[in-house]
Amino acid sequence: MSTTERRLRAALREGETVTPLELFFDLVFVLAFTQCTALMADDPTWEGLARGLLVLGVMWWAWVGYAWLTSVVDPEEGAVRIAIFGAMAALLVVALAIPEAFGDLGLLLAIAYGGVRGGQIALFVIASRDDRGLRHSVVGLAISTAVGTGLLVAASFADNELQGALWALALALDMGGPLLIDSSGWRLSPKHFAERHGLILIIALGESIVAIGVGATHGVDAGVVAAAVVGMVIAAMLWWMYFDVVALVSERRLVEAPEGKARNEMARDSFSYLHFPMIAGIILLALGLKKTLEHVDDPLELVPAFALLGGTALYLLAHVAFRWRNVHTLNTRRLAAAVLVLLFLPAAIELPALATIAILAAALVALVAYETHSYGEARARLRHEISH
Asked: Which domains does the chain have, with CATH numbers?
């Protein structure tokens, strides 16, 4: 057994706290999210939107892989630390290639992505040396990862519809792989796992704020200031909807779930899968905010308006699905809000962009205020119980 293997086997995660290196690792995704927004902003068409979401999906699944990995091994251990730094470098290359992911840099992106995922699999293989259940799951993951990466390489040599289809197939196979793998073999630290997903959500919300700054390229006047403040209100409401109660309840549910298959499938469904539409919704919102800040007095074009409203609706619908998966009850308020936001689309392409985001912000504030008032006592009791 090599020295690296001995050290890694001795470095399985024991604590539940997210480490500084994991926070450092996540910072690469600040650039990745910004690049996805820029990719869609440069081509604000339905095709451009689809391409941006495909790239975002690939980046998300790379992050998910390392969230599961660092829930098994301690990333601060020396050998693992170096491997994480290597993965960060490869992820940085992927992020840099995003603007030309469907052009000249497609092959570079695919190769760098293969390096990211290959490093994750290699660390999992070593960490599972004495755990047959985990090793079995890792082998299945390695197969789906290899197929997905191979399809991205093939896509770099294709064009137009075929290229998009290969990307979509690669993402579908990669994300669908865990559904075909025996989930009982995975290991995770529930509090750590839930906290990691909350932190990446904050990074995505940060992208919505960055988009405001990037959008204000034509100077700062009264309209831009108003739009920036309203955009901040929207981001704050999305934060509130998740972190006020949802994050606390979901963490507790994951901790209380029976260890093994039940807990692993809850983590897979609630976090790995259902957090993706939350992240995608925020990135689409960021695109809409960026376009709003560019021309606050003009109506948004159809695709940016859909990104703004559809992204918000997607975020709300993901919350509805998240609650259904965890507690099997339907959040009718957020479901109704998502429908109303989408119904506002025809008016949004006629009104000034500033008016559109102001109405959206007012709707979200009203939703949060209603939920807080209607369930204030239960909310306060729940937050007190969980915090103690």
From this structure: 1-187 (no CATH), 188-388 (1.20.1410)
